[in-house]
Amino acid sequence: MRNSKKMHSEFTLSLLVIGVLVLFPGLLATTNAGASSLNVSGYHTVEANGCWLSGLGGTFGRSDLLPSTGNFQIDSVFQREGIALVNIFQVRPWGYFFNDSNGPNAYASPEVTNAAYGPDGTVVFGMTLLRGELARDLGYGFSVPAILAHEFTHIVQFKRHSSLNTMQRELQADYMAGWYMGRRGTWVLTDVRPAFQSFFEKGDYDFNNPSHHGTPQQRLAAISSGFVDASLPLDQVYRRSADFVAGRATSSRVDPTPRVRSSGDSSSDSNERTSASDRENKIQECMAGMPERCIDTCLHSYNLPYAVCKSQACRPEDPTNQRSWRRACERRSPSSR
Questions:
Q1: What is the pLDDT of residues 109-140, one digit of tens each?
Q2: Cα angle vertex 10, ends 7, 14, to 5°?
Q3: Model pTM?
Q4: pLDDT 10s digits, 177-216
Q5: Taking a C-beta distance cutoff of 8 angstroms, is the pair 148, 85 a contact?
Q6: Taking Cα atoms as reference points, which of 228, 197, 150 lies closest to residue 308?
Q7: What's the count of helices (H) and strands (E) in the chain, helices before strands?
Q8: Residues in CB range of 204: below 8 A, 6 or more apart
Q9: In the chain, N or C: fewer CB atoms in 10 Å?
Q10: What's the sign of the alpha-carbon dihedral 67, 76, 148, 199?
């Protein structure tokens, strides 16, 4: 009989396995080939060069870049996750691990370090971050694909020349990470709760820091809203996520096609106004109950403390919560048009 601990380890790692080698294609190399071309010193300047997962930022040099985790199974998991990330986000960055002993983090840069296999930029994943995320859910690592999706979104932003500010770009990346996790759940076992909790914990209240990534409740609202939109195609969810973080989000149930009618159709106008008024009343009733629903979900799905749920994650006065809750209530009260 095989050792039960070994079987458990292989099973937990296999939960992330989905395809073939794409992301981090140089992980199994014996040398750090290509790393010398990545000028990473000073990459704590998020606006100028790239984007960190956490607002803590940081710096690392060439010697900190690693082609492998040192664990063949984990390397293989990263490689196999890459096929979905590349296909879904339609970008091809080159990947490394790095020594993030100064603080757990991951990083995306538009700088190309391998034009043949990673023409769209570079993604770097911290070893300290990896160990912490694997410890979060007993080795299953369900938050790791979400973090990779967050960094892949930055690569998409670089290619599309995003005009969002720093915090908006980070929250959009959180939104798209949730979207990816929703899509991922259609082909492989996926538990989004560790990812949601991980992103919540990476929020901060350092509002005066130019690298501020958003509060815990803003990051949780973004990733959970993206998860709801998992059925949308890339281009559409990219636009919707940008609208969401910029405060322009509208319900996906609203029909954007203008209706043509005669100018004399006053009864139709009156009925439509009444219908719109009734719908708005239902939306407001729904929103009045959202804080309680949010706290219940926060407690039982994310296993967060009650005080954190009530005072941080589910504050009704938070604009991000208001937008997220309104979208949910709009879906429950679709327009009659």
A1: 998 988 999 999 999 999 999 999 998 887 88
A2: 135
A3: 0.64
A4: 999 999 998 878 788 889 999 999 988 777 767 677 889 9
A5: yes
A6: 197
A7: 13, 5
A8: 54, 55, 212, 213, 214, 215, 216
A9: N
A10: negative
